[in-house]
Automatic annotation (TrEMBL):
Residues 523-662 form the DUF7791 domain. Residues 241-415 form the Nephrocystin 3-like N-terminal domain. The lineage of its organism: Eukaryota, Fungi, Dikarya, Ascomycota, Pezizomycotina. It holds the Pfam family DUF7791. It comes from Aspergillus keveii. Residues 900-925 are annotated as: Disordered. Keywords: Repeat. This is NACHT domain-containing protein. Transmembrane segments: none annotated.
């Protein structure tokens, strides 16, 4: 924002110079006018007020620029400009005192002579002319030099526009070019610049930059890293397949695109190609042409979301769906942002909250549909409703509610599960995919087999017979066909004749699960242990992994300490490429077709080669059958732990990350900490938080060293909590140190490691920031990973809160800036009121009860967004079914404030409710 302030300052300086120059020019005009005073009278009060207003504008830039302005020369010009304005105001004040009867005079110079200020005026004129020349020269440098912070800032805005794929009407480059044209037209006559034009263009540039920056910041809060990853990982459809969906009028889909409304449901069995079809529809020209007919004279916008059960939380949640849709809409029409995100747009302070609750997301989508009802139509494609991780009925209700808008229609796909059958079957237009893909499967089989079989001298009848058998047995399941074809082609490579091919085809099971089991049982026994380790690691990872990580897995057989011993040293790009290619081949040999290494040419660093499951059904096969216990675990030794192995792998990859890419190291470290979190939960669940946990502690300590040496900077607003930290109101990043890494560990839910660090570094709880540990511990990065709590009342994600309240005796009523930690916690609850996520609501409700139980003040007032209500009334409104329980806790808490606490340790007495209450009364004296 400092760069925008600098542009505004430059505009104000030019305005002030223009005013002074115009004033002196007007004086000369009057002095030489034959009319004297008459029509050329000057009103002294207006001059004084205008000059004071301009002077104030220039001075107000002090606050915006701060103590370290981005442009030191501009700052000097500001001081010079203010000094001239002060002198001119002083002269005008004298003139006013010499003219007590009225405030108009004719000749300014005549008036000056009256007060003997002509010499001073001439000096001011010269200084003003010199200042104008300096400003013109500096503006050229400021707007053209690559070393200029303004140029860097404008280029950054342009890069962000490209990164976010925004369609914007902002003319930043054009305004900058126009300014430079004016400034460079006649450098020798720079003192005669068209100042009014320059000032207006500078103001426009500042205003346009500010608006664009706000748009980008709000879009960034909607964006998330995995938004496009599922779409990118879906295989492209085979040539000339799926065209029937547009050409067969009996299906009704093409007609629905052109004239229909509401919901269209594509149902299909697992592996039938639903995701591939939706991806095809999203990018097909036929789709867009038909929708344009529906939109008529209105603008058309398409958006899509692909749920992914094996992905991150955002890839399988309603929040992810809504954020994806809103992001795609608003980057196309960013000018809607001031009207549909009013609070965020008006928020002058930084940072904008990165958290969007469910209500705000739905409200924004509703505002968009109403804002654009008369001139825009939307068609949304949502794939994989069955891969949504929450309550499916709530997702159905959301889809139906959104589709009630006459400007929105939605095409969805899913397996024929009961909630979707009940909601859509016979109620909305639909098609059953596996009954329609026989021709597509025939094309695929012919294309993949015909050339190879004909070159092997197989007869036409033999080729037809094999192809027909595959098509018949497929029953519309494309995934089965893909696996069968691959097996047959592999047999051809090994010299199979027609009899071998028939036997191979006869041996292949029709059921996908049986097929997967057969593939596993045919893997070379030499590879079986490595295969089992790879699958177990992938099953315990929350998303796809870089192929480079599996290069390091093989080092574990030689030395489990390899990750700790490895130096922090960047790996050359050509070496990374060579190893990734080699690892791709090795994974293909060890995991056959069940895992695949996808290459993303445009991705950077370790995201170029990504390992993922071939299909969701493969992952489901392992998780929903006994394959893990029957096949994978027996192939590994008892000491193998996939979570620790994954920690070592990601740490090793982080160590070879270029220092110029600290964000990549940060992402890898985050994935490592996710694995550490799951490892800790497994240890706790099995009641084994023993010395075995020490290796995790050492690995995390090493990650801190890596981040520190690579100069990683962690943005607290992203890493710690979505509630604005009152002691850190800016958005600047923080260098990694002991305390910063501890805060990140709290945010990531690492209970055992945090307890270990606090025991090792007891002074970590000293100082102002420790009070916010309670707030940080409310965050639950992987909530619900282990289901609701057992018969006990504790949620696994709240163990850190118990640690700080029960063991470390932190006081929720301590001040944190203008608020208390407790009121910030209530705001956190307000910002996470996602009605459809029952687990989240219960967990946060439990946290609020726990804080009240440990002395939180129920009558503390929460001014925003609670509008000055007491915290207890806010919580009772937020959780109405628990209103009585909150009332009882509040009464118990308040009555406890009137009783002296029983003798306890000094630290505990110091943090007691009565002590806190007494301290508050004393502070008012």
């Amino acid at each position: 924002m400092a760069e925008l302030a600098a542009l505004g300052l430059a505009s104000n300086i030019v305005q002030l110079v223009q005013f002074g120059s115009s004033l002196f020019a007007k004086t000369r005009q009057i002095a030489h006018s034959a009319h004297g005073v008459g029509e050329e009278e000057i009103e002294i009060e207006i001059i004084a007020k205008d000059l004071q207003a301009l002077h104030l504008k220039v001075k107000q830039n002090d606050a915006r620029l701060g103590n370290s302005p981005p442009d030191a020369t501009l700052n000097e010009l500001r001081r010079a400009c203010c000094h001239i304005a002060d002198s001119l105001l002083s002269i005008i004040t004298d003139l006013k005192s010499q003219n007590p009867q009225g405030n108009k005079w004719g000749s300014f110079k005549q008036a000056v002579r009256m007060v003997r200020k002509e010499k001073d005026i001439r000096a001011l004129e010269k200084r003003l002319a010199k200042l104008q020349t300096q400003i013109g020269t500096h503006l050229i440098t400021m707007l053209s030099s690559q070393q200029s912070s303004i140029v860097s800032y404008l280029e950054r805005l342009n890069k962000n526009t490209i990164r976010l794929e925004m369609t914007t009407t902002h003319n930043i480059d054009l305004l900058r070019a126009e300014l430079l044209d004016v400034l460079k037209q006649a450098p020798s006559e720079i003192s005669s610049l068209p100042l009014a034009h320059v000032s207006d263009k500078l103001a426009d540039l500042s205003r346009e930059g500010s608006s664009l920056e706000k748009q980008q910041e709000i879009l960034d809060t909607l964006d998330f890293r995995e938004m496009d990853s599922r779409y990118s990982s879906i295989k492209k459809e085979h040539e000339e397949t799926f065209q029937w969906i547009f050409k067969n009028p009996d299906l009704g889909f093409f007609e629905w695109l052109k004239t229909g409304n509401g919901v269209f449901w594509i149902e299909g069995k697992a592996g039938s190609g639903k995701s591939t079809l939706i991806k095809y529809l999203v990018k097909a020209d036929y789709t867009r042409a038909a929708l344009r007919e529906w939109a008529g004279d209105c603008q058309l916008l398409m958006a899509s979301h692909f749920f992914w059960a094996g992905g991150s939380t955002m890839q399988k949640s309603q929040e992810g769906l809504l954020r994806t849709i809103l992001f795609q809409v608003l980057r196309k029409y960013p000018n809607l942002l001031p009207n549909v995100c009013v609070k965020r747009w008006k928020n002058e302070k930084q940072p904008y909250s990165s958290n969007w609750d469910y209500d705000e997301l739905v409200e924004t989508l509703d505002l968009i549909s109403r804002q654009t009802l008369s001139h825009t139509r939307f068609c949304f494609f949502v794939d994989g409703l069955d891969e949504f991780s929450g309550h499916q009925q709530s997702l159905v209700e959301l889809v139906n509610n959104v589709a009630t808008s006459p400007s929105i229609k939605i095409c969805v796909s899913s397996r024929p599960w009961n909630p979707f059958v009940k909601a859509f079957d016979s109620k909305v237009p639909q098609l059953k995919l596996e009954t329609l893909t026989k021709g597509d499967i025939q094309k695929y089989v012919d294309d993949k087999l015909s050339t190879r079989l004909s070159s092997a001298d197989y007869g036409t009848d033999e080729r037809r017979e094999i192809a027909e058998q595959i098509v018949s047995r497929a029953r519309g399941v494309f995934l089965w066909v893909y696996l069968v074809i691959d097996s047959l082609l592999r047999g051809l490579d090994e010299g199979d004749d027609i009899k071998d091919m028939r036997r191979r085809l006869d041996c292949l099971p029709d059921d996908l699960e049986d097929f997967f089991k057969r593939i596993l049982l045919t893997i070379d026994k030499v590879y079986l242990e490595q295969t089992a380790k790879i699958f177990l690691i992938m099953l315990n990872s929350r998303e796809s992994l870089p192929a480079m990580a599996f290069h390091y897995l093989e080092q574990e057989d030689i030395d489990t300490q390899y990750a700790l011993k490895a130096p922090i040293e960047e790996m050359p790009e050509d070496e990374r490429e060579r190893i990734s290619q080699k690892t791709k081949i090795r994974i293909n040999a060890r995991c056959r077709d069940l895992l695949e290494v996808t290459i993303y040419p445009s991705a950077e660093l370790f995201r170029k080669y990504q390992v993922s499951f071939l299909h969701r059904t493969v992952r489901d096969f392992f998780l929903e059958t006994t394959a893990i216990n029957d096949i994978l675990k027996p192939a590994t030794n008892a000491s193998f732990d996939p979570h620790l192995s994954l920690c070592r792998m990601m740490l090793s990859v982080a160590k070879i990350t270029p220092r110029s890419k600290p964000k990549a190291s940060e992402r890898l470290g985050k994935e490592m900490m996710e694995s550490a979190f799951i490892y800790e939960r497994e240890q706790i669940r099995e009641h084994q938080p023993s010395p075995q946990g020490l290796e995790e502690f050492i690995l995390l300590d090493e990650l801190q060293r890596v981040w520190k040496e690579q100069s990683c900077e962690l943005y607290r607003s992203r890493w710690i909590t979505d509630v604005v930290d009152p002691l850190e109101s800016d958005r600047k990043a923080h260098q990694v140190d002991d305390k910063e890494f501890l805060r990140v560990s709290i945010r990531m839910g690492l209970l055992l490691y945090v307890r270990h660090r606090l025991g090792r570094e007891p002074k970590s709880l000293e100082g102002g920031r420790a009070r916010l540990y309670l707030l940080y511990s409310l965050a639950a990065p992987f909530e619900g990973s282990f289901g609701p709590p057992d018969q006990g009342a504790r949620y696994p994600e709240l163990e850190l809160l118990h640690l700080f309240l029960e063991e470390k005796h932190l006081d929720p009523n301590e001040q944190a800036g203008d608020e208390t930690v407790w009121t910030l916690c209530v705001k956190y609850a307000l910002s996470h009121k996602i009605a459809t996520v029952e687990y989240s609501s219960k967990r946060i409700c439990g946290a609020m009860k726990l804080l009240l139980k440990h002395g939180a003040d129920p009558n503390a007032r929460c001014w925003h967004p609670g509008d000055g209500k007491t915290t207890i009334s806010i919580l009772q409104g937020l959780y109405p079914t628990q209103a009585t329980a909150f009332h009882q806790l509040a009464n118990t808490n308040l009555s406890g404030l009137l009783e002296l606490p029983a003798p306890e340790s000094p630290q505990r007495r110091k943090k007691s409710p009565i002590r806190a209450l007494m301290d508050r009364f004393r502070s008012k004296d």
